[in-house]
Amino acid sequence: MTRDQAWDLLAQYNKGEFLLRHAITLEHVMGYFAQELGHDREHWSIVGLLHDIDFEMWPDEHCTKCRELLREAGVDEGTIRSIACHGWGICSELEPEHQMEKVLYACDELTGLIGAAALMRPSKSCKDMELKSLKKKFKDKRFAAGCSREVIENGAKLLGWELDELMGRTLAAMQAEEDAIEAAAAALG
């Protein structure tokens, strides 16, 4: 599947700017990690782009309905599994096993937290954010309360990384990819 095909598929079921921007963010963060960890950037990016394909229209069937939608589109079972397991313990029984699945699981909530923290900054950017500032936001359970700290912590454990390492690496990914994310998001509307 090409990026254009993945985008067209995502856009069939998602119209809201917030979710589309989140998909673009995960597309770029996953691509960054793929490159950093020596994997196929295009494949990891597409998994990131499609990870919430079912969330807007079927929030109560999240990580379940996606399997049906992706199969109908001819997506391979490995990719479907990788997408479905990012909701492990919340809305999916599938535990992340492969490195890509673990990165997606760990970064999904964390990118939301970083994005929310960036919006609070005068620059509205994460480029000038330091890890200590992110850690402070992480500890404040009222800040971006919808971003599960437990999932982020479990993601770090799954990867075998310290929480600070996951946060630092994900922040670095978002900083490196911010211009590309903003360019793609600007095309939304």
Provide a concise account of the structure shown.
The protein is built from nine helices and no strands. With 189 residues, it is mainly α.
Roughly what fraction of the amino acids lie in strands? under 5%
Mean pLDDT over the residues: 96
Derived from helix and strand composition plus strand pairing, the structural class reads mainly alpha
Order of H and E elements: HHHHHHHHH
Overall body shape: globular
Low-pLDDT sequence parts: none
What's the domain count?
A: 1
- N→C terminal distance: 25 Å
Largest sheet: none
Count the E strands: 0
Please give the share of residues in helix: 55-70%
Compute the number of helices.
9
Task: Give an overview in words.
This protein has 189 residues and is mainly α. The chain has one domain. Helix content is 65%, strand content 0%. The protein is built from nine helices and no strands. It has helices spanning 3-13, 17-37, 41-50, 65-72, 77-84, 99-119, 131-139, 149-159, 163-186. Helix 6 crosses helix 9 (163-186). It is globular.
Key structural traits:
189 residues; mainly alpha; 65% helix; globular
